[in-house]
């Protein structure tokens, strides 16, 4: 089953990369050419899961966990670069005081 699922996933990627519609028939054709016998139900479930979604855009964003982070990333990339802010000068560290340890290391 894992090999069949993987074959369907690769077929979907190939179809998306070649701008070919993701249909059950196209998935079955590719998996048969690869020598993997895939049940029609598996191909249909995969096609239904990605119906109306652009697979290549899901990959370019880094995954498809949710669309909100993708929108935030795109908006952040579209903003013009701001001038660097002035960096505050770190304060000089205060000198350490010698603390009497009660002769612990004498």
From TrEMBL:
- Choose one Gene Ontology CC annotation of this protein and give it: cytosolic large ribosomal subunit
**Which UniProt keywords are present, listed alphabetically?**
Ribonucleoprotein, Ribosomal protein
UniProt record, GO biological process: cytoplasmic translation; translational elongation
A molecular function (GO) held by this record is: protein kinase activator activity
- Which portions of the chain have biased composition (kind: Low complexity)? 66-84
Q: Would the keyword Aminoacyl-tRNA synthetase turn up in this protein's UniProt record?
A: no
Q: Which HAMAP family match?
A: Ribosomal_L12_arch (MF_01478)
Protein name, entry field: 60S acidic ribosomal protein P1
Give the source species.
Paramecium sonneborni
User: Which classification does the entry list for the species?
Assistant: Eukaryota, Sar, Alveolata, Ciliophora, Intramacronucleata
């Amino acid at each position: 089953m894992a090999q069949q699922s993987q074959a369907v996933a690769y077929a979907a990627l190939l179809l998306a990369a070649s701008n070919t519609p993701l249909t059950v028939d196209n998935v079955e054709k590719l998996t048969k050419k690869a020598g993997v016998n895939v049940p029609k139900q598996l191909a249909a479930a995969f096609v239904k899961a990605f119906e109306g979604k652009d697979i290549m855009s899901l990959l370019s964003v880094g995954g498809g966990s949710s669309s909100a982070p993708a929108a935030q990333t795109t908006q952040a990339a579209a903003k013009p670069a701001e001038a660097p802010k002035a960096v505050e000068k770190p304060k000089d560290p205060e000198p350490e005081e010698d603390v009497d340890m009660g002769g612990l290391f004498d």
